[in-house]
Inverse folding.
């Protein structure tokens, strides 16, 4: 049972240990990963036969978070982990993207990469051993795979790079970068940043690449000693006779005409016409008809790549660096708190922003103790009609979650703080039309929608995507600015970069080849910067140049004040009695943070003012000589009790009501009367004692019995002024 191999190396000042043959021996490949006290079980399994009737590689990546890893019960009614969290989905996608290109293109066996997070040390993020474990488990398995690859994360604190930062460091970092590399090249980049300059970002990427190369050397030793021989698999090929027949029906020069159009529907109809001709002639050949769609796809791909790389012709006729026609507008959706639409060619996104009190922020239960809520939520929807298809909506899939997270990551660096803008913010990007780079159009639309909603973002943010077509050598390539769907589909790269005039806020790079040279990475970053500047200056800023000074009339209004944290209990009251009374009385929502920040949210300004003044009264220590306004709530033989705010009362003794002797309190005061009093301090029983008769002469308490109207905000404001 103890016969297993263990290997160790240091990464970022923390020890990584890999156990092989200790557990999971029935999986094709298994690595028991230890990074500090973080433990992840990474496995790779493959089906014994290909899946029938598919034309893609069925890879599934899972990142399973278990709450026992941090010594917690799952929250909620069901004490068992349910569907994957957003963080799990995003981590799975990050692992998937660099590994998928390294499997054979004609491999059709189902492959599952599973990562079970079993223990988490906060300084050792489980994403790292999961990413590395998936790659290594696949490398030592018998599954065909052209690895190894490795991944490293990088933070930036006080202008110093931090390799594989822990949760606490990530919370303070100006950069969240993940880079995957093969032996020779970078294969995946994902980043969120606080306006990092391009040269600094390139430096960070290749700092990760250096670490990755050291990890690959470590992997090579393990693979050499523990790796299984790679199994053969059922190869998938198109018969040359079928290709020849297709070329006869539609010669190469004619195929160029078929794909050379800027209208997606026209091109699809042209391709459908070629297929119809093939079916008319060879419809009786069932073997060929089963393969013709894939053959046509390959023919179309070959044609597009040749046109771009050799002829420098793009399918829609644009120049290599030319951006598709752009348009922007705001205020399309009247009742949304802010809305904007951004159009780039046949890609069109409408973004709607809504505002709510901070209490509506998304609560997050995960393994990171520093992330417990999301104040800003960006959600992305991709309905079938946007690409001219029909299928029912089944809620967001991994693609929708990923695109929303990318846009969210791009915009978070420019959002105001809670103190500056005490709102929870939700942006929803609706895809009206799609022909490539909808995630980047979402960033542009959302930036404008936030401004239209009156969110005081620091700067506007734009996003753009570059593509790539490569030849036979590293020097034979062409980087394309603003790729449409066809160029993404048939190209080798989708390099998305978002940022402001001053720097990068997000990157996501997906490729279909075995990596990029540094020259390509630098050129892509430079071209996206040029395009971003153009979009910001010529399209977005003329549409809306700065955030509106006020939020929409349909948005809830929020006023924030600060109170002594020691007084929070006074505002809340016993079992919430006081705060609930304020909410019911003034029809507002009240949120209190532990630091004493109080947010009052409502639609009626007068009631909000009253609620704020009431809170100030509740949290004020009454001193002798203060002038106050109170409402008679209780009458006793010896006097009357006045309420200055919910939970804040004082007592006026019968002797302090009038200058002349009175027999009964009711002779002068009635329930509901509003009176002005002067504070006398506290009586022997510790109650606040007040006097009507000792109020300054300019205080009007004449005809008290008929002064029964509610105290207006102006009264309380005067009181506040006299007490300050």
């Amino acid at each position: 049972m103890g016969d297993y191999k263990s290997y160790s190396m240091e990464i970022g000042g923390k020890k990584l240990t890999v156990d092989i043959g200790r557990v999971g021996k029935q999986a094709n490949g298994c690595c028991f990963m230890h990074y500090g006290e973080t433990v992840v079980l990474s496995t790779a399994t493959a089906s014994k036969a290909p899946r029938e009737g598919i034309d893609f590689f069925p890879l599934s990546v899972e990142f399973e978070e278990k709450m026992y890893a941090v010594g917690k019960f799952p929250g909620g009614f069901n004490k068992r982990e349910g569907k994957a969290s957003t963080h799990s989905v995003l981590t799975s996608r990050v692992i998937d993207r660099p590994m998928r290109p390294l499997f054979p293109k004609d491999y059709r066996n189902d492959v599952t990469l599973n990562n079970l997070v079993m223990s988490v040390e906060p300084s050792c993020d489980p994403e790292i051993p999961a990413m590395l474990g998936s790659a290594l488990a696949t490398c030592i398995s018998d599954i065909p795979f052209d690895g190894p690859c490795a991944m490293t994360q990088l933070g930036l604190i006080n202008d110093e790079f931090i390799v594989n930062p822990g949760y606490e460091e990530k919370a303070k970092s100006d950069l969240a970068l993940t880079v995957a590399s093969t032996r020779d090249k970078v294969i995946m980049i994902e980043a969120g940043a606080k306006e990092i300059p391009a040269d600094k970002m390139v430096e960070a990427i290749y700092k990760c690449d250096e670490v990755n190369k050291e990890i690959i050397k470590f992997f090579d030793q393990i693979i050499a000693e523990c790796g299984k021989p790679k199994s053969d698999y059922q190869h998938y090929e198109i018969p040359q006779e079928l290709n020849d027949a297709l070329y006869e029906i539609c010669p190469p020069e004619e195929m160029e005409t078929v794909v050379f159009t800027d209208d997606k529907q026209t091109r699809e109809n042209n391709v459908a016409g070629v297929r119809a001709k093939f079916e008319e002639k060879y419809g009786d050949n069932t073997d060929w008809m089963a393969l013709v769609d894939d053959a046509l796809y390959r023919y179309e791909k070959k044609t597009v790549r040749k046109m771009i790389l050799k002829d420098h012709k793009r399918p829609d006729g644009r120049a290599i660096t030319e951006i598709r026609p752009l348009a922007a507008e705001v205020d399309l959706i009247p009742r949304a708190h802010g809305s904007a639409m951004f159009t780039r060619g046949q890609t069109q996104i409408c973004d709607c922003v809504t505002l709510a009190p901070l209490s509506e922020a998304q609560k997050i239960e995960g393994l990171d103790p520093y992330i417990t809520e999301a104040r800003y939520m960006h959600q992305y929807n991709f309905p079938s009609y946007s690409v001219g298809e029909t299928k029912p909506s089944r809620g967001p899939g991994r693609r929708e979650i990923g695109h929303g997270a990318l846009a969210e990551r791009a915009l978070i660096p420019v959002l105001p703080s809670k103190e500056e803008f005490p709102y929870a913010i939700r942006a929803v990007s609706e895809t009206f039309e799609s022909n490539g780079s909808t995630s980047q159009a979402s960033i542009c639309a959302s930036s404008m929608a936030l401004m239209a909603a009156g969110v005081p973002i620091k700067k506007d943010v734009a996003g753009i995507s570059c593509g790539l077509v490569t030849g036979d050598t590293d020097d034979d390539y062409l980087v394309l600015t603003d790729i449409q769907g066809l160029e993404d589909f048939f190209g080798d790269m989708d390099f998305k970069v978002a940022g402001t005039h001053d720097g990068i806020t997000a990157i996501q790079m997906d490729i279909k080849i075995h990596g990029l040279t540094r020259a390509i990475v630098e050129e892509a970053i430079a071209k996206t910067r040029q395009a971003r500047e153009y979009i910001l200056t010529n399209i977005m800023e003329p549409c809306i140049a700065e955030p509106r000074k006020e939020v929409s009339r349909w948005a809830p209004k929020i006023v924030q004040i600060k109170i002594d944290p020691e007084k929070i209990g006074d505002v809340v009251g016993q079992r919430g009695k006081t705060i609930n009374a304020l909410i019911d009385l003034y029809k507002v929502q009240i949120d209190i943070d532990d630091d004493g920040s109080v947010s009052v949210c409502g639609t009626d300004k007068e009631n909000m003012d009253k609620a704020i003044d009431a809170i100030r009264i509740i949290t004020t220590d009454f001193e002798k000589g203060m002038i106050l306004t109170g409402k008679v709530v209780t009458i006793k033989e010896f006097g009357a009790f006045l309420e200055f705010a919910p939970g804040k009362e004082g007592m006026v003794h019968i002797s302090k009501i009038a200058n002349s002797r009175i027999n009964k309190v009711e002779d002068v005061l009635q329930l509901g009367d509003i009176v002005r009093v002067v504070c006398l301090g506290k009586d022997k029983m510790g109650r606040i004692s007040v006097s009507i008769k000792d109020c300054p002469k300019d205080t009007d308490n004449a005809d008290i019995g008929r002064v029964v109207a509610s105290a207006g905000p102006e009264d309380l404001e005067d009181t506040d002024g006299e007490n300050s």
Observations:
- Residues 240-309 form one domain.
- The mean pLDDT is 91.
- The two ends are 76 Å apart (CA to CA).
